[in-house]
LacI family transcriptional regulator
Amino acid sequence: LKGESALTKSDSDQKVNLTLGFAQVGNESEFRSANTKSIIAAAEKEGIDLIFENAENNQEKQIAIIKGFIDKGVDVIAFSPIVEYGWEEVLQEAKDAGIPVILSDREIEVEDPSLWTSFIGSDFVEEGRRAARWLVNNMRTSKEKINIIELEGTKGSAPALGRKEGFNEILRDNPNLQVLESLSGDFTFKKGKEMMKNALLRYGKDVDAVYAHNDDMAIGAIEAIEEFGLKPGNDIKVISIDATKKALYALSSEKLNFSVECNPLLGPQLMKAAMDLKQGKNIPMKVITSEETFTQEEANKEIKRRSY
Ligand code: GZL
């Protein structure tokens, strides 16, 4: 779906008369691919006419897509905002056009909360706390300072801001853990690997652990650590968030040490919210998905039941 727009015609026995415009953030990670598949499959299942557009990690493009939905007069708009800020104007246009907006996966910061109707996604701050707690409880070294490299997600995005906040909250109570450097890997494998290579050139064996805001950057860091001549998961502990299948395989091969789940399968909840809105029902302002965490031991069992 990269860069294309997909118009999925509903099946013949259309159950609801509903057109949903969805502006996807991009195609940057395994999480995103699973998220996209979930949304499209859920629209098909419910007989909802989905207009799916991909903003390719560009806010101007995402705004233009949303404006296009307003011009088309869709019933409901949903999107996964690439960053938290800069949405007032386009969401005011949607509100003036009487089109409700659902935030999928990522939140925004706006003065006027009436500019969006509902948020369906995760508690990123808690995800960051869970990652930090594992390090606090599992980094057994004699060193008085445990040195961490943080690989951050897209600058200004809700998951990157939340995961950093939660991680730092726990570190404030554990001063023996310190972030040597925080680098932006933009949630991608390529940038994550590149940033980790730079960090290893600067700090080498002084690095004790890597905290990656998502699996794709963690897998990149794992490759960079191997190419540097060290053993990921052993010489340098690696922890990540999302817990996609790639992370579960890295856990079972002991190159990754811990992964915090961030559930991408939001399609069914999103379609239910859109249908409820169309039928004039009130919907909850926030729906936080329940999530788990995975150690190396738990990975093998989980892999068997995972579709993504
Ligand atoms: C989190 C989501 C993040 C994932 C990344 O809900 O927005 O964006 O953690 C994805 O993998 O790129």
